[in-house]
Design brief:
The complex is a heterodimer of chains A (about 300) and B (about 260). Chain A has about 300 residues and is an alpha/beta fold. Chain A has 9 helices and 13 strands. In chain A, helix 4 runs antiparallel to helix 5 and helix 5 packs parallel to helix 6. Chain B is mainly α. Chain B is elongated and about 70 Å long. Classes of the chains: A alpha/beta (about 300), B mainly alpha (about 260). At the A-B interface, helix 2 and helix 3 of A face helix 1 and helix 5 of B.
């Protein structure tokens, strides 16, 4: 438990439940995001990611549970919370008759004290966006870039990104993620927090410090990225002859045999597991860390098989 | 704030600028003034001893033309103000900008106030233009004749129309989350409610008390004011009542709106 003198968490969600009629979109989600972190909320379509972000913004009222953004309730302290948040929605809706310039001026009118004109200009130049260009003449990628400038130029403490790169081509995506989001956090790394919801996990691989994987409204796992790469491993073993039957071992998610080779996925890589595997006397054994995307896929399969079993 | 209010005014400009342009048509074609304008000018040129008979003829011509056109003007005003009111929030849904708007660090009360202010400014701009198009002439004829009753009653009527459109348009666009169906719903909603109330009035009050409540209010107003026609008076009262009921309801809907 935190005491009163500690800096509040950027985000604190406890037992969040959100129902839409009879459908439960989020079922008891709990997570904590410390300031200065880049946090990923991963999950398939319909996992409850957008609902969670909307609850953080106060766009949806939680059915049950508690949400705090910088220690404040987003519904009760509407303006105080939102003045510290920059939001990039999944759907990049704009007023089509506006130019990029007038859209940025409109966005700046909500936060005249916070708006950084120099940063806005830098970002426009970096993306090669013409401020005079009408929004209805812009491509989807350009609109996403404009949406990001609208969120970042106010220099918020918390950047909420809801599927920011879906539908963008790989070049725009790379620009969007590496250059801009990375640069945003570098500005004040101990203060600026990024909370990104996506299913295109590979794109955010190098940026994410910690993540939660959601499935059907529940948090399946929450891990630090480095710890995840330590624990989740793809183990390849090669045997001289036909491989022996792999005994039941805790933490082994799957085992696949192909001729003399065996490939295991584990979520509990440790020296003990390694020595148990070496006891099977493989000719060769290597253990590679999984990428976040592979962890996501493995966890998703595990969650599915768990549901089937239950 | 000014930028945001101007944005809302810009969003709906085709409707209200179109209305002003439409109002210019009778003037530019000379339909409403016709011969009366010439008679006015001739009579006024005879000061200090004007030809009162000529002025009376001119006033009569003008008044008849005015009375013919006003009901249509009221209807056109209602349709245009309704389009504007529906677009205040409906356009945010149409452009998928509502989530972005609500994520900005201003309270919902402020968003609501700014949109209402934009509407008020639009209505004011239209009325000021109308004053320059029609009002000055009406005022002049009224001053000459000391009887400008049509103007007073119809100014009240147009204000009622503006209030009615704002309340209905805002409520339906927030419930239906778009503009087109909201417009049609807002158009028929007051009519439906009026029909239901009339039916209820006839059934309950007539049966129980032997007289209609609306008859009683109507007569009271008629004797008290004497300024407006009975139909307009009833309409104004209905519009004010509607606004007082529906506008707060629309605000509650917006306050609790989930996107």
């Amino acid at each position: 438990m935190r005491n009163a003198t500690e800096t509040p968490h950027a985000i604190e969600i406890r037992d969040l439940v959100r129902r839409f009629g009879r459908t439960e979109a989020v079922k008891g989600l709990s997570l904590t995001v410390r300031p200065g972190r880049c946090y990923g909320l991963f999950g398939r379509n319909g996992a409850g990611k957008t609902t969670t972000i909307k609850c953080l913004l106060g766009h949806l009222r939680p059915t049950a549970g508690r949400i705090a953004v910088f220690g404040l309730n987003p519904l009760r302290h509407e303006v105080a919370v939102k003045s510290r948040i920059g939001y990039v929605p999944e759907v990049t809706g704009f007023y089509p008759w506006m130019s990029a310039r007038s859209m940025l001026d409109y966005a700046a009118s909500f936060r005249p004290q916070q708006w950084n004109r120099k940063l806005e200009k830098d970002l426009l130049e970096r993306f090669g966006l013409d401020p005079a260009k009408k929004i209805n003449a812009m491509s989807k990628g350009m609109r996403a870039q404009l949406s990001l400038i609208c969120a970042i130029a106010a220099e918020p403490d918390l950047l909420l990104l809801d599927e920011p790169t879906s539908g963008l081509d790989p070049i725009v995506r790379r620009d969007f993620i590496q250059t801009v989001i990375g640069a945003y956090q570098e500005g004040a790394p101990e203060r600026r927090t990024v909370f990104v919801s996506t299913h295109l996990i590979g794109e955010f691989e190098g940026l994410i410090d910690e993540f939660t994987i959601m499935d059907e409204g529940r948090a399946v796992i929450t891990l630090e990225s480095d710890a995840a790469r330590e624990r989740y491993r793809k183990v390849r073993m090669r045997f001289e002859t036909a491989p022996p039957a792999i005994p039941q071992m805790g933490g082994v998610l799957s085992a696949k045999t192909d001729g003399r080779a065996v490939e295991l996925l584990t979520n509990s890589w440790s020296p003990e597991l390694e020595s148990r595997l070496r006891a099977l006397r493989p000719e060769d054994l290597s253990a590679e860390p999984l990428s976040l995307e592979e962890i996501f896929v493995a966890t998703g399969r595990l969650a599915q098989s768990g549901e089937k079993a239950s | 704030m000014i930028r945001r209010v101007l944005k809302d005014m810009r969003e709906t400009w085709p409707y209200w600028v179109g209305l002003i342009a439409l109002l210019l048509v009778p003037i530019t074609t000379g339909w409403i003034y016709g011969e009366s304008q010439g008679l006015f000018d001739k009579a006024l040129a005879q000061r200090p001893k004007p030809d009162y008979e000529a002025i009376a003829r001119a006033y009569q011509n003008f008044r008849e033309a005015w009375q013919r056109i006003l009901p249509y003007l009221a209807l056109i005003h209602y349709l245009v103000f309704l389009l504007v009111a529906v677009s205040l929030f409906g356009a945010e849904f149409k452009h998928q900008t509502m989530a972005r708007l609500l994520a900005q660090p201003v309270s919902r009360r402020r968003i609501w106030s700014e949109k209402s202010l934009a509407y008020l400014l639009i209505v004011s701009v239209v009325f000021v233009c109308e004053w320059f198009i029609y009002g000055k002439t009406l005022f002049r004829t009224g001053r000459l004749y000391q009887a400008w009753d049509p103007m007073i009653s119809w100014i009240l009527c147009f204000l009622s129309v503006a209030a009615l459109a704002l309340a209905s348009g805002t409520l339906t666009s927030l419930f239906l989350r778009q503009t087109h169906t909201a417009f049609w719903a807002a158009l028929v909603l007051p009519v439906l409610v009026f029909l239901v109330l009339t039916a209820g009035d006839a059934l309950i009050l007539n049966l129980v008390f032997g007289f209609s409540l609306s008859d009683w209010i109507l007569n009271w107003f008629y004797f008290r004011s004497g300024l407006t026609s009975i139909d307009l008076c009833l309409f104004d009262m209905g519009a004010v009542l509607w606004f007082a009921l529906v506008y707060p309801l629309a605000w509650l809907k917006f306050k609790k709106l989930e996107v």
